[in-house]
Every structure is written in structure tokens, then in C-alpha cells.
Specification:
- The protein has about 300 residues and is an alpha/beta fold.
- About 50% of the residues lie in helices and about 20% in strands.
- It contains 11 helices and 12 strands.
- The strands form 3 sheets. The chain has a 6-stranded parallel beta sheet with strand order 2-1-3-4-5-11, with helices on both faces.
- α2 links the parallel β1 and β2.
- α5 crosses α6.
- The chain is elongated.
- The N terminus is likely disordered.
Length: about 300
């Protein structure tokens, strides 16, 4: 009995020792990004890599270029590279849960950023409170239009977390403004500027008297503003975006469009690394961590151009 107790005690000490070694060591993180053509995701990538470098952690980054099946293959490959944690921005809503399940089956903690996987969330989810921020943007553009007029909405990628939440937020604003009528809505595939241009061109042809546009990303808003400039309508068209992309903030300062919600992309990247390290160490973190975005107009944009949060 005495020998058994000694062996059990030794095993417990060894287990504690191994646990403490694991707690200290996050050597490599996999970063799976939806699409590095988007400035928003590039900002997060740069922040993740900068924060990891400060901590002496290697980052292996893969870019799905907006394609879900490609991303699944990329993450399968990442899981063979001895990563300690996965920071994951899903490339789309379809099959977004697959990489999370693959990582968890391999014992790898997952930090989801900006988009969560329906039915298989990561160990934690970091994002902007898109419902509240989209409501603020739509409140602003509806107020600028005098609370009445015809409105169009250019959605992001259908079914993704930000698209769903931004739609909810703007719907709350519309509910309080019965004088505004939504006359057209369309989804984009890549949240891209050329899509915004083409969609807005078509919307203007069908609805030449539209006066309000909510584009669910700044790239879409820039495309919409370009289409409006080409069409040269007689009426003022108020355009709202979302993200606080660096190029869009410069355009906003010049009056190209009217308002956006600036997300804390640098903080998202830093927090993603910090949460990955905590999860590897066995610490508990909140399941959902939402951040504020700041309503940004020509009046306050200079501060965000100088120092993006």
C-alpha cells in the first residue's frame, strides 16, 4: 500500500510538471484567414503576427481567398504542422464548422475571429458587436436623409456572422423609421469594391430615385459611391459603410461617402493571440467577446487615420 501511494504521488507530481510545461509553451499558432484581398483581414493578420512576434511565437498563415473548400484543406494541412492553437476566420458560412471540428478532434484550441461557425463555435469568438454598430450606422444615414425616402441594402456574404448581425442591426433602425422604404437588397460574394459598383449600378437603373444606401462593408460602400458618381443623379444619396478600412477612412475624409463603423482590428489581432495562449495553457476564456466599433464621419475620421484602433 505504501509503495502504491508513493507511485500515485510520483505520477501526480509528473502530471503537474508536464502540465506546467504545456502552460508555458505556445510555440506555433496557425492563422487561417478568409481573404487577404480584404483590408480588414489584412489588418488582423498583421496584428496577429506582430503580437506573436513579441511573444516569441511562430505564426503560419494561410489565405483561403474566399473559398470554403480551400480553407478546409489548408486547415487540415495546418493541423499536421504541430500548431498549438488555431486562429480561424471562416471563408464563408457553408462548411464553416468543419475546420473547428477537425481542430478539436486533434486537441487544438480554436479562436474564431469576426465570424463564428454555426453549430460548432470555437473555444472563444472575438468580434465587433455588429448588431449595435450597424444600427448606429443606419440611424445616422436615415437621420441624414430626414427619416424618409427609398433605401437599398448591399449585403455581405450571405449567412456569415457579420452579414447576419449587420442585417439585424439595420432592421432595428428601419423599424423606428417607417418613412423609409427598402426597395432593393442584394448579397455580395466577396464583400468587394467591384461587386459594390456593379450591384449599385443595377440598383440605380431599377430605382433611380433612391436616396439611402447601406453597404455592409467599406469596400462595398466605395464601389457604391463610385457607381453613384458615374450615374450623377440629381438627388443627394447618403451612403453608409462598415469596417473602418484604411483606404475607406481616407475616402471618408474627402467626402466620398458619409459614414462607417470603425472596428478595432488591431485589438482583435492582439486579443486573438492572447486568448490562444490562455487556451493552450488550459485557462478558461469567455465563449463570446464582443467589442465596440466607433461611428466615424468626416468630423472624427482624422484620429482613426492617424492611429487605427
Amino acid at each position: 500500500m505504501k509503495l502504491a501511494r508513493i507511485l500515485l504521488a510520483s505520477a501526480a507530481v509528473l502530471a503537474m510538471s508536464l502540465g506546467s510545461v504545456q502552460a508555458k509553451d505556445t510555440k506555433k499558432i496557425g492563422l487561417a484567414v478568409a481573404n487577404l484581398q480584404a483590408n480588414f483581414f489584412n489588418q488582423i493578420k498583421q496584428s496577429v503576427e506582430d503580437e506573436a512576434k513579441k511573444r516569441g511565437i511562430q505564426v503560419v498563415t494561410v489565405d483561403a481567398k474566399g473559398d470554403g473548400p480551400t480553407q478546409i484543406n489548408q486547415i487540415q494541412d495546418l493541423l499536421t504542422q504541430n500548431i498549438d492553437a488555431l486562429i480561424y476566420i471562416p471563408a464563408g458560412a457553408a462548411a464553416a464548422s468543419v475546420p473547428v471540428k477537425l481542430a478539436k478532434n486533434a486537441g487544438i484550441p480554436v479562436v474564431n475571429v469576426d465570424r463564428n461557425a454555426d453549430g460548432a463555435p470555437g473555444d472563444t469568438f472575438l468580434a465587433t458587436d455588429s448588431v449595435a454598430s450597424a444600427k448606429a450606422v443606419c440611424d445616422y444615414i436615415l437621420r441624414q436623409a430626414g427619416g424618409k425616402g427609398k433605401m437599398v441594402i448591399i449585403h455581405g456574404q450571405k449567412g456569415t456572422t457579420p452579414e447576419v448581425d449587420r442585417s439585424k442591426g439595420c432592421a432595428e433602425s428601419l423599424k423606428a423609421n417607417p418613412g423609409v422604404k427598402v426597395v432593393a437588397e442584394q448579397y455580395s460574394n466577396m464583400w468587394a469594391q467591384d461587386e459594390g459598383f456593379q450591384i449599385m449600378q443595377n440598383m440605380l437603373q431599377a430605382n433611380p430615385d433612391v436616396s439611402i444606401v447601406f453597404a455592409q462593408a467599406d469596400a462595398l460602400a466605395l464601389g457604391a459611391a463610385q457607381a453613384i458618381k458615374v450615374a450623377n443623379p440629381s438627388q443627394k444619396i447618403v451612403v453608409g459603410g462598415f469596417d473602418g478600412d484604411t483606404a475607406a477612412l481616407e475616402a471618408l475624409s474627402k467626402g466620398v461617402f458619409d459614414v462607417t463603423a470603425t472596428q478595432q482590428t488591431q485589438k482583435m489581432g492582439r486579443d486573438a493571440v492572447a486568448n490562444a495562449v490562455k487556451l493552450v495553457a488550459g485557462e478558461k476564456v469567455p465563449a463570446v467577446q464582443l467589442m465596440d466599433a466607433t461611428l466615424t464621419t468626416k468630423e472624427n475620421v482624422a484620429g482613426f487615420i492617424a492611429n487605427h484602433p
